[in-house]
Design goal:
Shape of chain A: globular
Helix content of chain A: 40-55%
Oligomer: homodimer
Strand order of the largest sheet of chain A: 5-4-3-6-7
Distance between the termini of chain A: 39 Å
Strand content of chain A: 15-25%
Largest sheet of chain A: 5 strands, mixed
Low-confidence stretches of chain A: none
Radius of gyration of chain A: 19 Å
Number of helices of chain A: 10
Number of strands of chain A: 7
Structural class of chain A: alpha+beta
Chain lengths: 220, 220
DNA sequence: CAGTATCCGATGCGATACTG
DNA sequence: CAGTATCGCATCGGATACTG
């Protein structure tokens, strides 16, 4: 990268940094709480290691990201500087626009179940959860071929933590959700109401009480 | 271009379109009122024709820009669709952030006098102008070598129109402004107040009444 | 885990020339 | 004026392998 537009205009100067492949997604991940190298990669799975390193260095050089030695000795910790935090307004504007105008441009290959379930995980309202562990199993159809290994996933809602599993964690499943991933994405993005899709596009098997409570827990 | 991040996230989908080299600047120009191919090039002088065509086609394909046959027969007219207009929020956020956090990253080579004077032109408050034509001549120092042909420029403030000239228009000059272009840019961007720089960094020769009224006319 | 190093292919893009 | 066409280089970035 390291592009110059030869303009003093603030839009141009900001774009020199931000209008680069992958960069907005990395910033988004840091805003969503990712703080390690692999946290970021989890949220941006298709980026290569080398490019992620390069982008993080650029963002550091521009005073948006800072890297600290992690206390435990191993690895580093990434975080946003005040200038990076100030980008929330930009990312929010981008998200708002994207939500309104890019819905019909979601390709089949964009429907990554892992990103969906990790997104759901972020939304969990811990305070709304009951006092016992709840295990939700997702079984998606319509998953792109490159992501079939995430066709089935588990969301473990615990009192102290919420975990996502790609392999059967062994706990008894309270509720299994089935349906086309596109329909789940539509609900996740707020384009379709949970109650309008539940029972038709989205199918549940298991505890009906939990099925009823789920949209509250996931703040859908 | 035509990149996919493989994510349904609205930030990702918006970035697929907007986080491309030159694209935010083209959108900015359209927002600032540019409507012909060369209007846009004037505001983004370093872009090549071929790339500008390519970007405009991409923006059309994404429903942000529309191209119409111009009435007069010759050429086309570019404009923003409603989806393009909705990008004002994104560009404004970018500008606001850039103004706050990229000031110290303005390079010498970013100080293009033509962009500065065209920017001033846009700001002119036509209603505040007096009833006669005013000719202001700019004579900048510190201009990057590649832009020396714009070292001296004229701004013609007329009742019905405001024009920028690169060559002496022949009219008698009411006021000549001299000084380092960087200082003028600082005032233009609002980082330094006109009244704090006037007389020190910025020098005036000519009608003192006009010098006094100028910041009002240019809304500085 | 969190990178680094190397390679090579794709393509983005600038330069130049041409056109209705 | 508003592009189109072609070319060739530079660099971006993906794949793979290696490392403390």
């Amino acid at each position: 990268m390291s592009v110059s537009y030869g303009q003093f205009c603030p839009v141009a100067k900001a774009s020199e940094i931000l209008a680069a492949r992958w960069t907005p997604l990395i910033v988004r991940e840091l805003m969503e709480g990712a703080c390690s190298f692999n946290d970021i990669r989890r949220g941006v799975p298709l980026i290569s290691r080398a490019v992620l390193v390069a982008r993080l260095r650029e963002l550091q050089a521009h005073g948006i990201v800072e890297r600290r030695q992690r206390a435990g000795g191993a690895g580093h910790q990434y975080g946003l500087t005040p200038a990076g935090e100030a980008l929330r307004a930009v990312v929010a504007a981008l998200a708002q626009w994207g939500l309104t105008y890019t819905q019909d441009r979601i390709n089949h290959s964009d429907l990554d179940p892992a990103l969906l379930v990790w997104g759901l995980r972020r939304r969990v309202d811990m305070k709304a959860l009951p006092d016992r562990r709840i295990v939700v199993r997702f079984d998606f159809s319509g998953v792109p071929a490159s992501r079939t290994k995430f066709r089935i996933m588990w969301l473990i809602l615990g009192r102290s933590s919420v975990d996502v599993c790609m392999k059967d964690p062994g706990f008894p499943v309270d509720l299994t959700l089935r349906g086309n991933i596109r329909d789940y994405v539509d609900v996740y993005l707020g384009q379709v109401r949970w109650k309008d899709a539940a029972g038709t596009a989205l199918h549940f098997e298991g505890d009906r009480q939990i099925a009823k409570a789920l949209p509250r827990w996931l703040q859908l």
